[in-house]
Amino acid sequence: MGEKSLEVRDLHAYYGQSHVLQGISLTVKEAECVALLGRNGVGKTTTFLSIAGLMAKAQGHVTLGETSLLGLPPHRIAQSGIVYVPAGRRAFARLTVRDNLQMAVPRSVNKQRAIEDVLTVFPGLRERLNVQAGVLSGGQNQMLKMARALLVNPSFLLLDEPTEGLAPLVVQQMGEHIRQLMDRGVGVLIAEQNARFTLKLSRHLYVLDKGVIKLERTGDKLYDDQEVLSHLGI
Ligand SMILES: Nc1ncnc2c1ncn2[C@@H]1O[C@H](COP(=O)(O)OP(=O)(O)OP(=O)(O)O)[C@@H](O)[C@H]1O
User: Fold this and answer.
1) Domains parsed from the chain with CATH numbers
2) Which residues does the UniProt record annotate as the domain ABC transporter (predicted)?
3) What is the ipTM of this complex?
4) Whose CA is nearest to atom 6 of ligand 1?
C-alpha cells in the first residue's frame, strides 16, 4: 500500500454568518508530525472540527489518499482513519480506565490484545487500569484519551492542545508518546499553545492567523528558526 496523505485544500468554515476559516490548505503525511500554531481564536479547533466532519458549514476539499472526506458524517471519517482528540474534555469519569479502553475497541478486534498493544505506548496507564478515570491526573487523562484514539488504529490523529495544563515533566513524556505514534506510522497534526514543544516534534509548521495560513515552514530545526520564533512571538 502506498503512503497516504491527509490533504486539506482551500478549506472555508462558518459559524452562522461568521466566516472563520478563509481558505486553509495543509498536508499531513503518514509518520510525520505537523504543527498548527497560532493565538487563541484564530481557528485551530475549527480546522480540526472541519476535518473531523463536525462543522455544520465547511467548504473546500479534505482528502485522505483518493477518498474525499468533506461532507461525510463524523463516524465515517473516523472509520477512514482520522481520529480527533479534543482539548480539555475528560474521559468517562465514572468508568474505570480499563472500561474506557474496552469501550473504544472496534467490535471486530480482540479487546485484550488491542489494549495490551496500546499499553506498550502508554505504560503509565497499566497501573491505573482499575481506577475510575475521574481520579486520573491531567497527564494520565490526556494519555487515556490518546490511548482510546489509538485503539481505533488510526492513520492520522488530530491532537488539540495535548499538553494543556500538564507539568513540564509530563509534557516531556507526552512528546515521547507522540514520537512513538509517529514510529508506528501515524501522522499527527497538533494544535498547541506550547509552540516550543510542538516545534521540537515537527518538521512542518503552519501558523494560522484570523482564519488564514500566515506562515508555512519545513525544516529539521524549526525550534531554532529565528524567523519562525519571532513570528510566533517567542
Ligand atoms: N460555536 C461557535 N459559535 C460561534 N463562533 C465560534 C464558535 N466556536 C468558535 N467560534 C469563533 O471562531 C473563531 C475560531 O475559534 P477556534 O476555537 O477555532 O480557535 P482556536 O485557534 O482553536 O483557539 P483556542 O485555542 O482558543 O481554542 C473564534 O473567533 C471563536 O470565537
Assistant:
1) 5-231 (3.40.50.300)
2) 6-232
3) 0.96
4) 15
